[in-house]
């Protein structure tokens, strides 16, 4: 490879900038020309591309968001869109592409690399941690810590008023943010898409807790749980417990922002470095993950959502510690 380009795609996640920095600086270290593509695949199709130097990525390792901006691009999911993208890459002589994003972004990369001879390397950047084959995704740790900070604050006011709080965290297909933030904040219940929710059993236990005057309770709900989010859970609880003092708090997009944690900066730097190594070594069309502290290169065409892998043990721990 001689000329590589990097883009960020899909929902942003804290640490994407650290990953862009790592890709750019490693590429330059190896004597490559490095280009930044604005707004993900949309910017690629529209040729919104600029040459990057070492200083283009100065002072960004600590910043949330992405300096390259991001988009969810429908056109790229069509063969015509990908043809336009390929023509842009060819015209510019770009012979390697690094995509920082989630599983949807990887599927796009896979389609492009199958149709055209352009090596693609993915970096797992999503707060949801819903990609199989990696223990970490860039942004997850920050999102969990943001949720923890918020839920701790909620607990203060919940405690002052003896209230039930139902807190909704992000994760439309995955419950990892809910599970991790819920355990770390001592939630009584954690509702996640990977598990069936027995809402009646949850309400039974609230009734029982009310009987023994345990009135401060926090339930953490992933937005994609089968009940349909925190508002719906609150409605069902109030149906059976009309006198309960309950409030809903939806944390929303604050979980996507903020300065990345140390862990997210480290994994972004490590993955970014290895993405360029992959391109140089000719290891193509994989995404870079980390498993058991070793690099794991997963073929893009086998990318799958991590579902149903939340261990029984964690669920047992939640139950025991909340009793
Ligand atoms: O995939 C990351 C994520 O934050 C999900 O947890 C959430 O469901 C979704 O993106 C929100 O997407 P949008 O940015 O389109 O509101």
Short description:
The chain has 323 residues and is of the alpha/beta class.
Q: Beta-strand level of the residues, as a percent range? A: 15-25%
Q: What would you call the structural class?
A: alpha/beta
How far is it from the N-terminal to the C-terminal residue, by CA? 58 Å
Mean pLDDT: 96
Radius of gyration: 22 Å
Strand order of the largest sheet: 3-2-1-4-5-10-11
Oligomer: single chain
Segments where pLDDT lies below 50 for 5+ residues?
none
Tell me the helix content.
Answer: 40-55%
3D shape: elongated
Number of strands: 11
> What count of helical segments does DSSP give?
10
User: The biggest beta sheet, please?
Assistant: 7 strands, mixed
User: What compounds are bound to the protein?
Assistant: 6-O-phosphono-beta-D-fructofuranose
Element-level helix/strand string: EHEHEHEHEHEHEHEHEHEEH
